[in-house]
Design brief:
Chains: A mainly alpha, B mainly alpha, C mainly alpha
Number of helices of chain A: 16
CATH class of chain A: Mainly Alpha
Number of domains of chain C: 2
Order of helices and strands of chain C: HHH
Distance between the termini of chain A: 18 Å
Number of domains of chain A: 1
Order of helices and strands of chain A: EHHHHHHHHHHHHHHEHH
Helix content of chain A: 55-70%
Distance between the termini of chain C: 54 Å
Oligomer: heterotrimer
Largest sheet of chain A: 2 strands, antiparallel
Largest interface: B-C, 52 and 49 residues
Number of strands of chain A: 2
Shape of chain A: globular
Strand content of chain A: under 5%
Structural class of chain C: mainly alpha
């Protein structure tokens, strides 16, 4: 079946399920990423609430050790790979082409493929719950706990195969967005005129395409050890379990910058808009982002200060870790300087952006405390680290993402989210997270290790754990407030118009939601802040002059993703016919995709 | 700028697919870099089984030469497609695929011989690192051969004219990259044993 | 589709044949060096230099990086250097280099 290219003048292309399955429109793909990721965010949140329920008092017996291991493993894996990354991807997809004045991404079908493979990977990994074999080795899967000797069930296989699927999806998307930003900018949109969100997206994709191959190899080694009896992580054969840790963290540290940079980009859009002032030190913020990406490759072993690498290695990684605080700190000052002297409007996007700045500073401070190897020896593998990661990932990434959600919601839907419910969401979230995570600094320093399913009353951390649990449930309430906001606001349908916030960048120059082709005429950009600039940019017409040619849909990306899923299932149950069946579907999918008439 | 011109406007004046492919190759540098580094890290640490003395330098030198010549055939194929020479496009594409297959043949022989000599994936660190590293590389060569044969078929269908130069160029980039990775592997695994 | 400048400055068939001949000669030298006992001590630097030369020749001429836009060179070289740095760091950490 051919997918005919169609000329589109109206905004939507069908409302059928099939139209969504075959869509190659970056806006639709962005919405699918967002909705799917939010559902997984709820899963991850539920896992967190169960963990906190178990830990709310010492010697609790609500959840047994094995289930607990599965819960914290899936909580971490889900939040990192199935929530934060794809939530960011939702915005890469929807917003970046709009910000650079493009009609779509460079490779629309590859874009669709990345989404379907992400969905397949997320479903695959969570299907493990249905067979009582959810991953249970921690989100970082240390060897040789993950060997067949110590993890005989399917849990780790679900984990490593699922992650490989997600990795392929991410690398494909990484290449796609990188090329889009480099090559599809509107005339006049020089690199140093791009919005900061687009810059941070570009830098993130560079990290994705360079870091993911490393974990791909690490997981291949693990899979081969488990399935084919190789000896990569086998102590008996002379192997070194630290190989896994090095390879994992070589990926893992750039990964945390992959998690935070997009949120930093979002906040860099919101703060200037709601301060009615251009971003202070745009160039410095861009260079800081680049520096973070480069330095981010040099700090990985700070996750390994307790393994005995020796004083030289410890000192080197301590130094690089301390150094990387600098570009991050610079950004904080730039955001504050942006607000200084501005006319601040405390709408919900701004509240979350401010929450980001404040909470990320706290998370950054505990991070700097970790950078000193001797100090870290007390802190590592305790709840102190859990405090740190949640301040930067919830206080930072999640708040940043909600800032983006509230900010760009009107553009994507055409209607406004309610301010009162938004504020309720924000305050419940802020109070909840501080109650949940601040005590963890003390709990950790008092000696409670991570990843334990229960603890002795004698430790004296029962009361603080209870406070933490209450905080977690308050976060849960805040998420409910958000969901209520969505449904309530949808019924109210307060029209957003093109530019409800009075913002500066290109995406606010087109209708909300944008038509299929985004821009009736591709703009000729003459400044960094097209809507705030004195230099006149020619107005974008309401209607296109002639017909605009947009590519149609295709189902081959989805078919190829399904093929990989079949392959994955075959690998999981180690049945060669299924693997070969999957390969066949993939091959057919790729060839059909390559040869179908699809005009860009 | 007219919308038709804008439809194909690019910020760099370069084809997006070529930029994408070089990005992919950059990503592959990390992939193979990790595999090769693991081999080096575990080099000499095996506690059992045959190790590097099992490697056949003369034979692998020949297969290395074969792969290098296949890169020559590949650039000649690209040149032929560019100038619209269908006959030589087919000759050189087929030659590249053939030489690539010969390389795989050498590798298949090598693998079976090693297994015969008592070196398998499970035997030792050397077995694991050697077979996975060279196996991954061989897998890449295999995919390359399939790609080349696909192009060959397209040529016979009359669908590989000069307007399709980029497609052949990208397959060439892939092929040369795979060759370049082998240059590193040959030195690091076979000669620097 | 986009432009034509990158197709200019293609090496000629003769150039390709010369490069192929150089690659062959370097390979022969590499294998030769391998069999010379006196060179055992300096084997690594010699072989690494020779293989680097082959690497660069293939990338610059067969893959056209020399004639093409520098963007491609940047896109390839940065991850390559990253891979080399990571490899070096790991070898140091595992005591393979300078042990």
């Amino acid at each position: 079946m051919t997918s005919a290219a169609t000329t589109i003048q109206a905004s939507s292309v069908g409302v059928t399920v099939w139209s969504w399955i075959t869509t190659t429109d970056h806006k639709r793909i962005g919405i699918m990423y967002g909705v799917t990721a939010f559902v997984f965010f709820l899963f991850g949140g539920l896992e967190a609430l169960l963990i906190r329920a178990q830990l709310m008092k010492p010697a609790n017996d609500l959840i047994d050790a094995e289930t607990f291991n599965q819960l914290f493993t899936m909580h971490g894996t889900t939040m990192v790979f199935l929530a934060i990354m794809p939530l960011s991807a939702a915005f890469f997809n929807y917003i970046v082409p709009l910000q650079i004045g493009a009609r779509d991404v460079a490779f629309p079908r590859l874009n669709a493929f990345s989404f379907w493979l992400f969905l397949a990977g997320g479903l695959f990994m969570n299907a493990s719950f249905l067979v009582g074999a959810a991953p249970n080795g921690g989100w970082f899967g240390y060897a040789n706990l993950t060997s067949t000797q110590f993890s005989p069930g399917l849990n780790i296989d679900f984990w490593l195969i699922g992650l490989q699927m997600l990795g392929v999806a991410s690398i494909a998307a990484g290449i796609n967005f990188l090329v889009t930003i480099v090559n599809l900018r509107a005339p006049g949109m020089r690199m140093m005129r791009m919005p900061v969100f687009t810059w941070m997206t570009l830098i993130t994709q560079f990290l994705v395409v360079t870091a993911f191959p490393v974990i791909t190899v690490a997981l291949v080694f693990l899979m081969f050890d488990r399935t084919f009896g190789t000896t990569f992580y086998s102590v008996a054969a002379g192997g070194d379990v630290l190989l896994w840790q090095h390879l994992f963290w070589l990926f893992g540290h750039p990964e945390v910058y992959i998690l935070i940079l997009p949120a930093m980009g979002m906040v860099s859009e919101v703060i200037p808009t709601f301060s009615r002032k251009p971003l202070f030190g745009y160039a410095i913020i861009v260079y800081s982002g680049l520096l973070i990406a480069v330095l981010g490759w040099g700090v990985w072993a700070h996750h390994m200060f307790a393994v005995g690498m020796g004083p030289v290695a410890d000192a080197v990684f301590s130094s690089t870790t301390m150094l990387i605080a600098i570009p991050t700190g610079v950004k904080i000052f730039n955001w504050m300087a942006t607000m200084w002297g501005g006319k601040i409007s405390f709408k919900t996007p701004m509240l979350f952006a401010l929450g980001f700045v404040a909470m990320f500073v706290i998370g950054g401070l505990s991070g700097v405390m970790h950078s000193s190897a001797p100090t870290d020896l007390q802190q590592t593998d305790t709840y102190f680290v859990v405090a740190h990661i949640h301040y930067v990932l919830y206080g930072g990434a999640i708040q940043g993402i909600f800032s983006g959600i509230y900010y760009w919601w009107p553009k994507m839907t055409g209607w406004m989210l309610n301010e009162r419910w938004g504020k309720a969401h924000f305050w419940l979230s802020l109070i909840g997270m501080n109650l949940a995570f601040f005590p963890m600094h003390f709990i950790g320093l008092l000696g409670m290790p991570r990843r334990i399913y229960t603890y002795d009353p004698v430790l004296g951390v029962g009361a603080m754990n209870l406070v933490s649990t209450i905080g977690a449930f308050i976060i849960g309430l805040s998420v409910i407030a958000f969901v209520i906001n969505v449904f309530y606001s949808r019924r109210q349908r307060v029209e957003a118009g093109m530019d409800p916030w009075g913002a500066a960048t290109l995406e606010w120059s087109i209708p909300s939601p944008p038509p299929r082709y985004n821009f009736a005429a591709i703009p000729e950009v003459v400044s960094r802040l097209p809507r705030w600039s004195d230099t006149e940019m020619k107005a974008i017409p309401a209607e296109p002059e002639g017909e605009i040619h947009m590519p149609g849909g295709s189902y081959w990306p989805a078919v190829t993703a399904v093929g990989i899923l079949i392959l994955a299932v075959g690998a999981l149950v180690t049945k060669l016919p299924i693997v070969l069946g999957g390969v066949a579907v993939v091959v057919v999918g790729i060839y059909a995709w390559a040869f179908e008439p699809f005009e860009m | 700028m007219s919308d038709t011109a804008l439809a194909h406007y690019t910020s760099t004046g370069l084809d997006s697919r070529k930029i994408a492919f070089w990005t992919f190759l950059g990503s592959e540098c990390l992939l193979f870099g990790t595999l090769i580094t693991t081999y080096l890290v575990y080099h000499g640490k095996s506690v059992a089984g045959p190790t590097t003395e099992i490697l056949n330098i003369p034979l692998t030198s020949v297969s290395t030469f074969v792969l290098l010549m296949s890169s020559l055939a590949m650039v000649l194929a690209l040149a032929a497609v560019t100038r619209g020479d269908a006959l030589f496009a087919r000759v050189w594409l087929a030659t590249t695929a053939l030489l690539g297959s010969m390389f795989l043949g050498f590798q298949a022989y090598e693998f079976t011989h090693f297994v015969h000599e008592g070196l398998t994936l499970q035997t030792s660190l050397f077995g694991s690192t050697f077979f996975v590293l060279t196996g991954f590389h061989g897998g890449h060569v295999f995919i390359g051969v399939v790609w080349l044969l696909t192009l060959l078929v397209r040529s016979f269908q009359g669908k590989l004219g000069p307007d399709k130069t980029l497609q052949v160029e990208l397959s060439g980039l892939y092929w040369h990259f795979v060759d370049v990775v082998w240059i590193v592997i040959f030195t690091v695994v076979y000669l620097l044993r | 589709m986009t432009e034509h400048t990158e197709q200019q400055g293609h090496p000629s068939t003769a150039t390709y044949l010369i490069i192929a001949a150089i690659l062959t000669i370097i390979t022969l030298v590499e294998v030769g060096v391998f069999y010379v006992p006196a060179l055992q001590g300096v084997m690594a630097p010699i072989l690494l230099s020779l293989s680097s030369a082959k690497f660069i020749l293939v990338v610059m001429f067969f893959m056209h990086l020399k004639q093409d836009h520098t963007l491609f060179a940047a896109i390839f070289t940065i991850p390559l250097l990253l891979a080399l740095s990571v490899a070096t760091a790991l070898m140091l950490l595992f005591g393979v280099l300078l042990n």
